[in-house]
Write the structure tokens for this entry.
Amino acid sequence: KFFKEYCDATGRTLPYTLRVLMGCSEETGMTDVDYYLDREPMPAFLFTPDANFPVGYGEKGGFGGTFESARLSGNLVDFTGGVAGNVVPDRASALVRGSLDGLRDTTHVKVAAEGDGLIRVTGYGIGGHASTPAGTVNAIALVVDYLMENKLCTPEEEHYLAMLQTLLATTDGRSVGIACRDEMFDALTCIGGTITMEDGVLRQTIDVRYPTAISGEELTAACKLLAETGGAKFIPGRCSEPFYISPDSAEVAVLMDAYRTVTGLEKKPFTMGGGTYARHFRNAVSFGPDDPDAAKPDWVGSMHGANEGVELAFMLNALKIYIRAMAGLMELEF
């Protein structure tokens, strides 16, 4: 029905080229956008179906980096956790020299002997997207706390681990001294994503989503100060400024009209902490296909967590919204 109503079957040329771009690097730097824009003109308008409905017209800044320890030679043999820098880790484990005597499992931490005087300490947390850490439990923090509480590490190692405890104590940046918010975006978020150990050096990554109330330079300075408390150094990584377009633009109005027509809902455009392809274009937004308020089957997990999913019927309804939106965009003057 919608294709018959909105797709021009007469052969008349549409006023604008409609191009579908399939990206393959959204979670690993979005360098495919750089490749595309080096070879093709900037689109007059673009939306990416990589978020929630109705329309995401702004995204927080993104900041990352690594807290690197000095070379340690103590009880820690290995420490690993997390699958990506932008995901709150639900699993982490440390291999440490010691004895099981007096050690007990807890609700979220299990310990086991691995022979040759080694113990495996494994934390089981609750994963989730770095931009929405509410309700998550960082597995790296669980392991760090267990190691510290049970005195399983040397003073040199504890020096670095105590710094990690401070870093991972909150997800709004309070423990690091960077908590803030502004009128455009909600509160800053800060999570520890992955930890690795190689040749005695521990490396903990962070992911910060920040509003306009703070700058990348201020974030770097705060992280360097924290690193010094653990005898470590902070190596800055990516830093991208907050991005947004006017929620009152004609393009956003067209998308909102399509959403409201299909769903009958009166939700408002929003800003978010997640980062999408939209931020790499001059005039772009995120547009569905998910809806955090929609009912989902019990087996569906959180975004970037285990069993992330959506019902097929919901996706087909999103297609109706997209068709109406594209038809409306063809009526605008760019």
